[in-house]
TrEMBL record:
Any one GO molecular function term: metal ion binding
One Pfam family here: Rpr2
Official protein name in the record: (apollo) hypothetical protein
GO biological process: tRNA processing
Coiled-coil segments: none
Record family assignment: Belongs to the eukaryotic/archaeal RNase P protein component 4 family.
Entry-linked PANTHER family: RIBONUCLEASE P PROTEIN SUBUNIT P21, RIBONUCLEASE P SUBUNIT P21
Keywords, sorted A to Z: Metal-binding, tRNA processing, Zinc
Source organism, top-level taxon: Eukaryota
Gene Ontology terms: cellular component: nucleolar ribonuclease P complex
């Protein structure tokens, strides 16, 4: 069995660690959580890596704080033109993020779909 080294593996581990710290600190000090969120984005940019969609959806685009319901953000379900939407409103900067939420449609990001997986590296 041959193992290939994943490019940027140490950077992915650092992003994961920063994400966990940010999520832990968001209720204690949102400013520090924003700082760690900013580090996540900067590490990904410097190493030309894509942040996992689940993590990226939880980072505010403006202040880069981790969005946690009833802690650093408010989550609302909205209906627009017969389609359901999830709206996140950041408590720090009041920026809104909207995602589709219809049950009968597949709104997953392409990376989350099975056809996006070409090879599994263990």
């Amino acid at each position: 069995m041959t193992f290939r080294k994943v490019q940027g593996n140490d950077s992915f581990q650092r992003i994961n660690y920063l994400y966990q710290i940010s999520k832990h600190m968001v209720d204690k000090n949102p400013t520090i959580a924003s700082y760690y969120g900013n580090l996540i984005v900067n590490v990904a940019k410097k190493n030309v890596l894509k942040i996992h969609p689940d993590i990226k959806r939880q980072i505010c685009k403006k202040c880069r704080c981790i969005l946690v319901d009833n802690v650093s953000a408010k989550m609302k379900m909205k209906t627009k033109n017969k389609s359901k939407l999830i709206e996140w409103i950041c408590n720090i900067c009041k920026t809104k993020k909207t995602f589709p939420a219809d049950r009968n449609k597949d709104h997953r990001v392409w990376l989350e779909k099975p056809e996006a997986v070409v090879e599994v590296i263990s």
